[in-house]
Design brief:
Strand 9 (249-256) and strand 10 form a beta hairpin. This protein has a 5-stranded antiparallel sheet, sandwiched between helices. It has 297 residues and is of the alpha+beta class. It has helices at residues 2-6, 23-36, 41-52, 57-72, 125-138, 144-157, 159-172, 175-179, 191-195, 203-214, 216-224, 276-296, and strands at residues 10-11, 20-21, 75-79, 88-95, 101-107, 112-117, 186-189, 234-237, 249-256, 264-271. It has 2 domains: 2-81 and 184-296, 2-Layer Sandwich (Beta-Lactamase), CATH 3.30.450.40; 83-179, 2-Layer Sandwich (Enolase-like, domain 1), CATH 3.30.390.10. The radius of gyration is 23 Å and the shape is elongated.
């Protein structure tokens, strides 16, 4: 016990208290679990049953978040890929009376994203339909990022032939503009049960966590980090970005992808004292099962 305390894995809050794990202690334990544990067959069957019963992409996503929340007793979080990485299945433009344009993107798997923009030039509905028809005929199955790259190449080579049409398409498919004032789509499940947990008897701490949930860009930033790590499951003990409550939280996340799209993220945010073996293996399993379910949808 003394050796563990000396190594920084345990500490004694005060002289009359027992020793409890530090963030380093939890981190070491979580790393060992991630390397060796597997999810129980019962949990695997329950998760697959929950996902299989959903009928739409949005419902599958909500079920995945619910499953993670139930297993971890924390927050189950699903973050979609950024809009620039969205693979186009169909696009539509609708002109509003004040000149703004509604852009409706249907991505592979049937997920729908929409955004209202105010373009620099004035469009007619006929202009918009002609541009949408061009994009739907030539660019289904590509990301907005790839579409813009190809459009710019076409414009550089054959400006006279493609000039106005391509410039319109570039203006309406500018991922930077589409991202302004919005975030990636995020689903959060389990806030009520997390608030009711014994770990959050401190109401001030719970308010800080709930405030972070409302500021969803913080959650997106937290989960985005796992995509760039080499580990299949990323474990963060003591969560930066949710101050000061984050020092008492743990974040477990893993990337998911489907039909060759760029990855999104699934994850669990909960108290530092959690059932790590079940939570880590559940996040890894849900990421895989979620990807497979989306592929079949």
């Amino acid at each position: 016990m003394a050796d563990l305390e000396e190594e920084g894995f345990l500490y004694q809050p005060h002289t009359s208290a027992g020793r409890v794990p530090t963030a380093s202690g939890y981190r070491y334990f979580a790393q060992q679990v991630a390397a060796q544990a597997t999810l129980s067959p019962e949990d695997q069957r329950w998760i697959r049953g929950q996902l299989a019963s959903a009928t739409t992409t949005d419902e599958v996503t909500e079920r995945a978040g619910h499953v993670l929340a139930e297993i971890s007793r924390g927050l189950g979080i699903i973050v979609s890929p950024p809009i620039a990485k969205t693979v186009l299945e169909h696009i539509r433009f609708v002109l509003l009376p004040d000149g703004r344009v509604v852009i409706v993107l249907v991505s592979t798997g049937g997920a729908t994203r929409d955004k209202i923009i105010r373009p620099e030039r004035v469009f007619t509905q006929q202009d918009l339909e002609r541009t949408a028809d061009y994009l739907n005929r030539h660019y289904v199955g590509r990301t907005l990022e790839a579409i813009r790259t190809d459009l710019l190449a076409r414009l550089a080579k054959e400006q006279e032939r493609y000039g106005l049409l391509v410039r319109d398409a570039l203006a309406l498919c500018d991922a930077g503009v589409l991202e302004q004032g919005s975030t990636q789509r995020i689903y959060v499940e389990g806030a009520a049960q997390m608030a009711a947990g014994a770990e959050f008897s401190d109401q001030a701490q719970m308010r800080e966590v709930l405030a972070a949930i409302e500021e969803k860009h913080k959650l997106i930033a937290l989960l985005a980090g796992c995509i760039d790590t080499p580990d299949p499951v990323h474990v963060q003990i003591g969560v930066k970005g949710i101050d000061p409550a984050g020092e008492h939280l743990a974040l477990i996340s893993a990337p998911y992808s489907f039909q060759d799209q760029s990855p999104g993220t699934v994850g669990v945010l909960g108290p530092m004292r959690m059932h790590y073996e079940r939570a880590i293996t559940a996040v890894a399993f849900v990421a895989r099962a979620f990807s497979e379910t989306l592929d079949r949808s």
